[in-house]
Each structure stands twice: as structure tokens, then as C-alpha cells.
Request: fold
Amino acid sequence: MTRHPLATPYPKPWIDYPDRDGQPMADNTLQFEWIVVLKENLDLLFSDRPDVFVAGDLLWYPVKGNNKVRRAPDALVVFGRPKGYRGSYKQWEEEGIAPQVVFEVLSPGNRLQEMAEKFEFYQTYGVEEYYLYDPETVELSGWLRHAGQLQPIATMNQWISPRLGIRFDLRTEQLVIHTPQGNTFLTFAELDRRRQQAEVRATQAELIARQVSEQLLTAEAQHQQDKQRLLVLEAQAQADRERAEAAEAKLRELEARLQRENESPC
Reply:
């Protein structure tokens, strides 16, 4: 059937961009723990930066109109985009800005083909830094974009992320990540323990401050009492001096009278 040239064009079909891909976030507790550690500590690291968006296991759609091209990095960081809720990361709604840094945490269930496809996706759609960590073997691999391509980082031990400023330390039995301030990435339990310790220290400091304040108030009250007693003593001393002067004057007067009487002729 031929459409009239002035007829209204057919509306474009509505495209759904699901928030979930049906895949589990993690296959085991170790992988899940590391995903949470990465996401939460990165969030904490940039908590004072309103222009840095951090997410975990969030579907990223780079191409408008194609809901099949998508990936959900275990953790991603986007500089230049505001914090806030997102069901998915639709790049065309984010000023075209792709996540600059992504993390993947391996599990035994990850297939080689799957990881190759993820690498190709990150390569194609502009990721600047890509880190792949296997917590069971404590192996960390990284790629940095150079000349338009993700190039492997030769040595990951003590590597400092250009974008994040974090340092990867592989000298122990597990990966240790250091922040630019010298702190380490901690688990949720460790963060909570640190919070509780900080609260205890704050309570103790408040108690000490209150005790010192009370001692200062007591000392000030004692000082005022001593000052008042000193004023009373000074007043008493002044009164004693005045009485002594009056007695001395009276004595001189008596002596003068006796002298006059003795000098008078009989």
C-alpha cells in the first residue's frame, strides 16, 4: 500500500531499556563482597564530589535505539555526571559521557568468551581504565586507553589509577587498595567497626571535655570564693589599721594631756 506523501509518518516503535538483564550480581560470597567493597569505597572516596557518579551492577546502554548493546560492570565511575538514582545508565541521557573507569570481579562461573565480549564492549564504547580482579587467585589485570585502544598495564602492583588516584597493592595475600589519602578500602563490616570506634572516641572526647569544663568551672568558683575571702580579709585588715591608728591617736592625745598637766605649776 502506497502512503500519501502528506500523510503523518508512522510513529517510531517504543523501545524498552530494562533495568535488569536477568543475570545475578555475583556467583559466590567472595565475589559479592569484593563488588560491594569496590562500589561502596569508591562512593565514599568521591562523596564530596557532586559531579562523580558511582554505581555497581548497573546496566549501561551506550547506543540509543539498541537495547541489545549493554553491559553491567561490577563497578563503574563516571566523571562529569551528577549523583542520583538511575535504573540504568543511558549514555545519550548523560550528555554522551561514557563511564571512564570500570571494574569486573571474576568468579568461577565467568567464561572466557564472556570476558572477551566484555573487553570488546569496553574497548568499543570508550572506557579509559578497565580493571579485572580474581579474588580467588589474587590476580589483578588492568588496561589503560592509549591512542584510542585499551592497552594492558605491564605491572599492576603499586599501580596508581590516573583517574581515581587509588593505588593497588598486591604484596599481601589479598589485594589492598589505598586511597590518595593513605586509607585502605574496607569491607562494610570494617567500615562499621571503624564508625563505632570513632563514635566511642568521640564520646570519650566529649566526656573528657565535659570533665575539664566542670573542673574549670569548679576552679573558677573556687577562685571567686578565694577572691571574696581576700576582699573580706583586706577589709578586716583595713578596719584593724583604722582602729590601731585611732588608738594610737588617742594614746598620743592622753600623753600630751599628761605632759601638759605635769608642766603646769602647782
